[in-house]
Amino acid sequence: MTHHRNHIVCSFLLTLLYFIGYTQNKNLDFQLLFSCKEKAELINCDKLGYIYLSNGTNIYKYNQKGEQLCLYSNLKKGKISNIDTYNPMKILVFSKDFLQLTFLDNYLSPLNFISGNLADYNLYQPTLICASHDNGFWVYDDVAEQLFRFDYQGKPTNESISFSQITTEKIIPIQMKESESGYIIVNDSNSGFFIFDQFGTYIKQLPIPKIEHFDIYSDLIVYCKEAQLVALNLNTLNQQVVSLPQNDIHIVAIQDNIIVCLNTEGNVSVYLWTPTN
Q: What's the DSSP call for residue 11?
């Protein structure tokens, strides 16, 4: 079953790369599946095709029919600043204000899985967090200016060099994600993307500034800019663009043939896309 699904995903990815690479002659047909009634600040989708959105207080989970499946809310843990669906069975939720790390199952019910306060992890000033392979997670510490990885038991396993050894510019990362192939991507709105391997070893910088949010699909960094969907290949560094179905989209999340769009007014629309001649 896993092999069959991987084959489907690889075929889809090749299709995506082909049509994005030939956007001057091809178009994408966006079919609106549904629009969410809730306003949102955060959006995400997982590898199973489920859609997530949050207004900072609640998390809502939808299927592709537009049916709301689950709701998570916990005001005691502070405003939700990040949702990471790297593992759909162990969804990472981070509340930066209270340094609260929470893991949810696929019904958005809290797990006891190393949830707690990041102050207990011997960090100085953790500001970003993302899920990692084997149920681990990465944390960026603003004082140390480093990445730290913890395993499924909350034990430290890896760390990066300081960003001060990489660049003379002061780095203030605003987002971090791990790709399924093991890349760690850290985004700074002034300096662009910094790429690390799965052990925290620095690889390269991609100086693309003024990107406030990105998503990862296989080895593509995907983000929106000026009403266009931009796909940047981490390996080849080729960058191609596709026009989006709305002019006011400023955040996108992508998985397989689903694109979740968040506009500047907080409205969420979910599209199915197919290439057309």
A: H
Beta strand extents in 36-191 (DSSP E only): 42-45, 51-54, 58-62, 68-73, 82-84, 91-95, 100-104, 110-117, 126-131, 137-141, 146-150, 156-159, 173-178, 184-188
> pLDDT of 133-161, one tens digit each?
999 999 999 999 999 999 988 999 999 99
Residues of the chain where predicted confidence (pLDDT) is lower than 50: 1-15, 17-26, 277
Of 186, 122, 125, 171, nearest to 150 by C-alpha is 122
DSSP 38: S
Report yes or no: 135 and 163 within 8 Å, Cβ to Cβ: no
Contacts of 1 (CB under 8 A, 6+ apart): none
- pLDDT in the model for residue 37: 93
Per 3-state DSSP, the chain is made up of helix, strand and coil in percentages (nearest 5) of 10, 50, 40
- Nearest partner of 220 among 240, 190, 191, judged by Cα: 240
Quick one: pLDDT at residue 33? 96
Identify the pLDDT of residue 19: 45
- Sign of the C-alpha dihedral computed for residues 202, 207, 208 and 210 taken in this order: positive
What's the sign of the alpha-carbon dihedral 253, 259, 263, 266?
negative
